[in-house]
Structures are given as structure tokens and as C-alpha cells.
Amino acid sequence: MEPKKEIHNKGGRKPKLNPVKHRYMVNFNDDENALFRQRFEQSGLDCYSKYIKAVLFKRELKVVKIDKTTLDYYVRLTQFYRQFQAIGNNYNQIVRALKSNFGEKRALQMLYRLEQRTVELVVLSKHIITLTQDYERRWLQR
Fold it and tell me: SS3 string of 33-57?
């Protein structure tokens, strides 16, 4: 009897050098699934996993971080803008009312006061613009 020889070749497939062993799962609703299938068919690829990999790794992904303080600042700035628009509308109405309801001297006095307040608003709006530009330069990342 001869001793048994060790078998080095077990048979079957050769092991892959870099096996694919990490899997992820995603769920779609009917609309999302229809859109996914439509885009998959347009891609011309033959396998869903190849399509998903192509979409994920061949396109540049942009990460958007929302800063709560910046959002609050712009909301308040928008409110200021609306108030300035309202003041502009009221300005026109006041000038018409002064012209039609008061004498020339009284109307000129009121217009002078209105002009002073308007200059103050212009200075304030320029200051707001300066602060906004400074804020964007110092705190917003581009």
C-alpha cells in the first residue's frame, strides 16, 4: 500500500483577489423605482449594481452643510428688505397726502422731516450691506 498523497488542488473556483463582500440595501417607493429603472435603461448598462457603482463613484458628490445661524441671519435680512419696501410704498403715499392736504409751508416742513428720516434709512441700509459683506467674507465657506 502506498501512503496517501496530499492534495494541493481542492478544485472549484479560484478565490478572487479582492472579493466583493460589503452589501447595502436601499428601498424605493413606486415613483422612485420608476425613475431609477428609467435612468438605468438610459445608461445602457446590463446590471443594476454596475449602474449604481457608476452613479456613485464617477460623479462628484457635493456635501451641503446648513448653518442655522446663517439661515437665521438671511431670514432676518429678508424681513428687513420687506420693511424697506413697505417704507418706500408709504413714502409715496405720504408725499401725495402732504401735497393735497396741507399748505405749501406745512408740506415743506413735513417733507424736510421725511427727507431726514430717509437719509437715516439710507445710512442704515448701507450699514446692513457692509455687515452682510463682512459676515459673508468671515464666516461663509465657499
Answer: HHHHHHHHHHHCCCCHHHHHHHHHH
